[in-house]
Amino acid sequence: MALLQALVNGVLVGGVYALVSVGLTLVFGVMEIVNFAQGEFLMLGMYIAYLGFVGFHLDPLVSALLAFGLLFGLGMAIEAGLVRPVLKGSQLGHIFLTVGLSVALQNGALALFGGDFRAVQTPYQVSALALGPVRLSVPYLLAFGWAGAVSAALHLFLTRTGFGRAMRAVAANSTAATLCGVNVARVRMVAFALGCGLAGLAGAVILPYAYVFPTVGFQYIVIMFTVVVLGGLGNVNGAIAAALLVGVVQSVSTLFFPTVLENLLVFTLFVLVLSIRPAGLLGRAHAL
Amino acid sequence: MKLLRRLRCGPLLTGALALLVAVVFAQPANSAGAPAVVVGVVMPLTGSLAAFGKTSLAGVELAAREINARGGVAGLGGAPVKLVVRDSTSEPAAAANATARLIEQAHPVAIIGAYASALSLTASSVCERAGVPFVTMSFTDDLTSRGYHYTFQVVPKASVIGAAQVSYAAAIANRAGTPLKRIAIIYENTAYGTSQAQGLRRQAERLSLEVALFEAYPHGLTDAMGLVQKVLASRPEVLFPVSYFTDAVLIVRALAQSRAKPQIVAGAAGFVIPAFLEALGPLTEGIMSVDTSNYDHYGKFEAAYQAAYHSFAPHEAYENAISLYVIAAALNAARRPTPAALHAALSAIDVHGGPFAGLPGGRVKFNASGLNESAYPIMVQWRAGNLATVWPREAARAALAWRGQPLR
Amino acid sequence: MRSEGPGLGGAGALAAGVLAILGLPLLGLSDYAMRVATLTALYAVAATGWTLIGGFANQVSLGQATMFGIGGYVSTLLFARWGVTPWLGGAAGAALAALVAIALGGVAFRLRGHYFALITLALAEMVRIVVEYDQPLTGGAQGLSVPLVRNSLVLLQFARARDYYEIAALLLLAALALSRAIAGWPLGYELRAVYDDEIAAALAGVNVRRAKMRAFVAGAILTALAGTVYAQFTGFIDPDSVLSIPLSIQLALYAIVGGARTWWGPLAGAALLVPLGELMTSSEAGAGAGITKVLYGLILVAMVIVEPDGLAALLNRRRRGARAQA
Fold first, then answer.
1. Which range among B41-50, C134-143, C206-215 has the greatest average pLDDT?
2. CATH number for position B384
3. CA distances from A19 to A40, A150, A195, C300 (A)
């Protein structure tokens, strides 16, 4: 019974992890940069949803679309102005850039919104559906729904649209894609913007059960990296599978181990997978 | 400053200097002409603790304004108090740097800081070496158990707070006629969480309570469902969480989704700040917490804080204000504005009433290790959106409810 | 960026540099300035430790804080529990860091590029979790306070920052000398070969794994020693301050900003960023909180756009430009 409940909780939490991480893996797949500022885009999405709630009584699940749009725009600007000039350089330059960006965004939020903790109260955030002996948390269920919708939309975009296919082509081999006439620069810009937009959307979606303050992104960044690595860097489907796995492992492990060690187990998995199957659980890195 | 000059940060430095000079000269001149006495304030104004640094600073500033409006420090010829503030950030090494810089540049007679225990530990160590009194409301036992002479702790220490959390709850349960048997303790894996939880557990064992769960969790949870499931599985009558705000919110929300609802008796921090009410609204009803002081006892300070910041004064605001009031009282007795004279006066001080009335015990008197011995913890409870002192009975300002039942 | 000889000019300049580093306290700087200088030197040592593997061989580790933390924890535990002088404790810390480096390297060196970076991050987090968990041994998340004994060279504790600075400066000179020497040793050539192309290097007969491991272990020892002095200097350590991801990133950043492929880059980066970071935090009060740090972040961003390979590349370009004009 407890195990069943833990499994269900784990799947729900895993869905949220998938939503939070899918943008990071997309950006990595197309641009091969590890973006340390991704947590800050999540944080901005949360603030947008918070302001929408306080100023216009918009439910965060609705303002998620607004967060997506605004961060998509911000992402385009950042890609064109900051990322593109250093993209050709080494991995070191990427660390340098995204860390600087992260510091600037965290403290920009501090200067703008103050350091206070912010949260919203929605009617559904503390309700749960009883399904036999198992209880399903409604805010997680709604976030899970969003995660499913986003995954489906992303999948359709990548497989059914010309631009999506071009994106996969760039991820697989950017030189070959260029030779085939793909506008690589534009694809990268959209991919980065999409990554930012998805992080913003995720931030808004999780706000009803979470909270926001300027450095909240750091709490999610480790989970993001873990999920993205387990899924195979750049593999969208892999990240979703990995997110569900991490959610379940964390949730079930707390039944048997001290809670403080839940991440030790996750990291052990992380190291094992990297050592045995560096391409991730599904075995195809860069597959988008 | 020489180091900075060597680095040729010319324009920036000039700007910063101009700002500093402006701030210095913007202080109203004292009519009596006594030179201002400088008190340093080191608080986390950036990083993850920024929210608490801000409210702490607000409290000290209110106290300074009030002291100066009443004519400054009488024993120093009416010298006004001048605060010099530095950002400790949320990192221990930076807190030490900020403290050293403050001591050198502003020559304060004392320093108030730095809210979080880890920051206060390094800041106080710089003060100890420099011979400048460090007055704090941080909880951790380490502060006054290291044999330091210049650290003064105005509130009870963490292990005492943890013990009170359990013994008050047991006393309340007895009064309600349902003696406490089975409890669960969860605590964040930080300096504050572990030291307080140890006090809690020792006291629970002393009272022969059954500790069904004693569980640490990594602070900054992204979800609390697993933790709460574990709590519920241990079927406690009372849950004792020792958590900061973010985890507190997740834990309370996750508990609200379950059928069983144990009484929560929290360990201050995240459970007793205005943001907790903003985040949880009606869910706060009935939640109890141990605390080191509460706003329904603050009197004039609470009114002034409400007027200035439109929320109740969290305990760190008041206790940091108290730190300044103690310093002012000691300066008054010392009659010389030097760290050494102030240190002697602080060691001998015994003040009560007035601004100190809001502190449980109503008195500040430091023992040989620098701990304010007369301070004791209290129990507070959320009732209809207000945080009320409910225990011990002589300090209570409202009737309490135990496990949903009102108690006379 | 091919050859990394002395880099900053001849023997005269080198001697001047050594004198400048050792003689800094003679300028009569304030205690605070000496604190910042001490931290700069210690971070420069730790970043030099990072650059041996991260810069010279482009094996970007995001777990260097582990070594820093081991240095701090081992010496502090030995000192606080059994009164062992931190001079010995530091050596013990360095030895343990070397062993841990061999173990971690054994796992991590199977991977390359981003995978290497991320596995080092995960391994470092595992170490932090274990240290936080094992409270009876390590003090857990509460951290450890170094017992205060005031002035004692034997116990590596001083009242004034300038005394710590002299220790840190000597350590820095040793680290720089080692780093510079390695660049000229066969190991240095091997690491550069790995930097250029790992597979080609292996084909050319370089024992890639051994070269990486040697650099990693040497770097771990340097970083651990810096950690020991840091713990004595601040008097308090906890997992958040000496074993955290942000510290790992910070150490890499100092080296990258200065120029990760040069022996003096980590020092240049630390000497620029540590005081800059201080300048950006110290003067703010209340309402302006955060704004100066935004500036700090933006300066980093601007620097990487101007020169992604750090100050060293900028200087080299200047010098080449000057030569071309002459």
1. C206-215
2. 3.40.50.2300
3. 15, 7, 11, 30
Residue B249 sits in the same domain as residue B163: yes
Torsion, Cα B307 B308 B310 B314, to 10 degrees, reads -110
B230/A255 CB distance under 8 A: yes
Q: Which CATH class is domain C27-325?
A: mainly alpha
Q: Give the position of tokens 């379940």.
A: A248
Range of the domain at B219: 159-291+378-407
The verdict on B273 and B387 lying in the same domain is: yes
Q: Which residues touch C50 (CB under 8 Å, ≥6 apart)?
A: C61, C64, C219, C223, C251, C252, C255, C266
For residue C155, give the nearest of C229, C97, C222 by alpha carbon. C229
Per-residue pLDDT at A222:
84
CATH topology assigned to domain A2-130+143-276:
ABC transporter involved in vitamin B12 uptake, BtuC (1.10.3470)
Residue boundaries of the structural domains of chain C: 27-325
Q: Which of A51, A24, A6, A35 is nearest to A207 (CA)?
A: A51
At B2, is the pLDDT very low, low, confident or very high (cuts 50, 70, 90)?
Answer: very low
Q: What share of chain B is helix, strand, coil (3-state, %, to 5)?
A: 50, 20, 30
Residues of chain B with C-beta less than 8 angstroms from the C-beta of C279: 4, 9, 12-13, 16
| Cβ density class B356-373: b for 16+ within 10 Å, e for less | bebbbbbbbbbeebbbbe
Q: Please, which residues bridge with residue B84 across strands?
A: B40
- Pick the closest to residue B234 from B253, B214, B254, B252 (CA basis): B214
d(CA B342, CA B355): 19
Same-domain pairing of B383 and B354: no
Asked if C278 reaches chain A (Cβ–Cβ under 8 Å), the answer is no
Q: What end-to-end distance do the CA atoms of chain C give, in Å?
A: 20
Q: One-letter amino acid identity for B53?
A: G
Per-residue confidence band for C283, with pLDDT thresholds at 50, 70 and 90 = low
Number of helical H runs and strand E runs in chain B = 13, 16
* C256 contacts on A by Cβ (under 8 Å): 92-93, 95-96
